Structure formats: structure tokens, C-alpha cells
Amino acid sequence: MIVTTKELFQQAYGKYAIGAYNINNLEQIVGLFRGNLGKTASNEEASDAATSAPFIIQISRGARTYTDKAFLEGMIRTAEQVFPDSIFAVHLDHGTEEVCYDCIDSGFYSSVMIDASHEPFDKNVEIVKKVVDRAHAKGIVVEAELGQLGGVEEDVVGSVKLTDPAQAAEFIERTGCDSLAVAIGTSHGAFKFSGTQGLHFDVLEKIQAAVNAVKPNFPLVMHGSSSVPKEWVERINNAGGALKNASGVDENQYFPAAKLGVTKINIDTDGRLVWCAIHREFFRDKPAEFDLRAPGKIFMPAYAEYIIHKNQKLGSAGHLEEVRKALKK
Length: 329
Hints:
8-stranded parallel β-barrel; 15% strand
């Protein structure tokens, strides 16, 4: 069942964070849906209530243009039928104004993110407000971003600029956005931190206090939050990869962030690492093979298991039925 991120955030705020996972192909979609139902081996396998979770499926501009966007939308619609117990939002990740309008008009997306964070504050407000007005007219919710993350997202190269708490409060009042992505030390890509760097919880606390003063229980979002697990990086490198000094967000910081109002945590790089490791290992160990389905059969349950693990760290595991009951009221 497709719902809005706003409906999910109302249930999660202050208790846990919802995993927002980027997808690009069939195998990722199948693994993602299985994992969020607590399944691993097959579509027919019984769901595990203790690990099943609501989730957000994210489509980036790059994913929409990798082939025709209709392919991804068709596969997600099919997954909704194959996995009817799932509850999820369909979200545009890092959209431009033009792409946001295309998604709003499509009738498929339940949520869009307009990223004008590279613009000056007033210009960011202006652009977001226009998208909000058009989206809200069709019952679609909007995520915006204030501050800048390091790393590269699509064609935007970010330089780190932490979110100013006072500006955050002003921003949500002026734009009417439904959630706000904040910069608190995360970064896009596989090379986020060096040494003992981590999230700026002191900044997050101030942002939560400032925005809640104008809009209580206002949902915050963390982008660039993949953990870049060392075991997957090592598996890639042992199979011929060359990822040096890759590092990410400590998974143990997800739940404390959720307690401070972060209700959506974006995870993209980790899914690519799992895909890369499994495919590299498969063709390293079986160089005579050329069937693309063979490594895919290994990837799907492995990715499902990784999604279950992520949801446990986010605190969302085990909350699916609770969300279902709340949405029926």
C-alpha cells in the first residue's frame, strides 16, 4: 500500500526512523520489499512481524533517466501486488523544480524532494514554496533541504555547510514544507568520514528545539547516511575492487538521531556496495559464467537480510502492523 511520508512520520516521530532506500533495478526492488516484510528466501515465505517495517522507496533523477522512468514505476506497481502487505511511500530523491513538477503531475509519487539547498536562503525558500503549493494541491507532500552535505549527489557537488537552527525554523514557516533535510555532519557517497568524526548531535538538538517551537513534532531528515560497512568494502576489495579509506555513518547513531526528531534516514551507497560485492565475488569464483540471473539470485536474499539489519538499527523493525492499524483508524 502506497502512503505519504507524512502519514509514516506521524507514527514514527520520536520513536524510530523510517528507512529511505534508493532503487535502480528489479533485484533491488525485490530484495527491498522482501526485507521490509522480514522475508529473505522467496515471495511465498511468511512475513516476520518482529522484523517487518514500513519504508520509503526512493527514486533519484539518475534512476529515472537510467532507462525510461516508466520501467521503474511499473516494477514498483508490480511489487505492490506481489507484496500486498507492504506499506511504503514512493519518494523522488533530490529533485529539481522541473522534475518535481513532472512527478507531481504523474499521479504516481506520494512524496517529492525539492533540493534547492545550493541556492541562497531566500531563493531556496522561493523555489520550495512554489513546489509545495503545487504538490499540496494534489495531496502530495514535500521534503526540502537546508544546509549542504559534502560529497556528490547526482550532478551536485556539495561543500559542507551545517544547518543553522534559527534559519531552519524560519524556512519551514515560510515554505510550508512537510519535512526538512538537515546537514549535521553526514555526506554523500562512500567516503564520508575520517578518524572519529560523526554526527553533530549538539546541532541536531538545537534544530529540533527551534523547529518544534514553530511546528511541534516536525520531521527531520538525514541524507548521506549509509554506514559503508567495512565487511562489504573488504569483500569488494578482495574480489578485485579498489575502495580505499571508505567510511560511513555509525549505525549506532541512527536511533539516537531518531529520538531527536529524525524520522527519515536515506540509505543508497550501502545497497550499491552489497550489489557490487556479490557480483564481483560471483564472477571471480565462476569466471566461465555469464548468466546475469545467477548473481541476482544471490543478491536478492542478501539485500533483504541487509534491509532487515538496517531496520533494526533504525528502530523501525517490528512496527509494520502498528502502522497498519493506525492508518485504518
